[in-house]
Design a protein that fits this description.
This protein has 341 residues and is mainly alpha-helical. The chain has 14 helices and 6 strands. The protein folds into 3 domains: 56 residues, no CATH class; 85 residues; 167 residues, Orthogonal Bundle (hpI Integrase, Chain A), CATH 1.10.443. It has a 3-stranded antiparallel beta sheet, with helices on one face. Helix 3 packs across helix 5, helix 6 runs antiparallel to helix 7 and helix 7 packs across helix 10.
Amino acid sequence: MSLYKRGKVWYMDLRVGDHRVNKSTGQKKKADAEVVERAERERLLNRQSDVRLRQAETMPKLSQAADRLWEERWSRLKDGQKMFRTILYIVQEYDDPQIHEIDRAWVSDLRQWLIKNPDGKRTREIATVNRYLAHLRTIMLSARDDWEILEKVPKIRLERESNERTRVITREEQEKLTKVLRSSTVKKRPYDRDVADLVDFLCETGLRLSEALNLAPKNIKGQMIQLFPVDTKSKAVRSVPLTDRAGEILKERGNNPFAKVDKFQANRAFNWAKTQVGIDDPEFCLHACRHTFASRLLESGASLYDVKELLGHANFSTTQRYSHLAIGHLQNAMNRLNGGK
């Protein structure tokens, strides 16, 4: 009931949309109080309709909000273009609503659409879906907190990602793979031999693929790779000492070692080579070189903290995916202590 009596006077407590009224009707008879309550409810409904009409006339569409965020922020970020493109894909392939129309139901439908590719042949990885949703959330929060054109935004929940993929490349697999790449005579892939060096270099340094491809003279400091905030995913400075093999590769290729290779060519050559050596494992990819570096570090006696620093993880929780490898190497150490028993 929206009407209640206090003493001899009737009060009303009603809510319409985001507006609530709790006050005296000024009436002692319930029938008269109901007339006042109906009039107040109608006034609030009209007010809500006016607000929605003004929103419909002035509220930007998702594409317009993305354009604004590009101008204000994304255009200055290293990955800003990727962020903008994810929203552009949603706008072009799914929907371009006014941002006040984006509610929990719309987000839920979008999530399901993203998970299942339009071609119906496969589903997107959870990490990929999360990137789309995270960039959408950034726009919605900007509309509320920075532009102040939304009072509230729907909760955009990200799916939990698994960090369990730690496929390690054995030295035998690495040797077979790079041998195939170095002996490649495929004219449409003149970069195969470059990718052979790239595989060795990634296994020796633990760099991310993008970090290795973008190496420039400013990043080479003697026997050290120096990465600056603009170069790294974590936006932090990182130093990686060069192993003998990594140093040889830089000596042979110069301080712009992989400038002629892009990520698509690198992945194409790698996937071709792994097929040639008979490896059918989706986790056997270029990123596995990074796991390989971590595994070999631990095998040599390094700590998980050393791995964190050399790989440039922002959080130790990311490094802990390698904890099972560390335990294995600790057991080997104990076996040596026991005389090899």
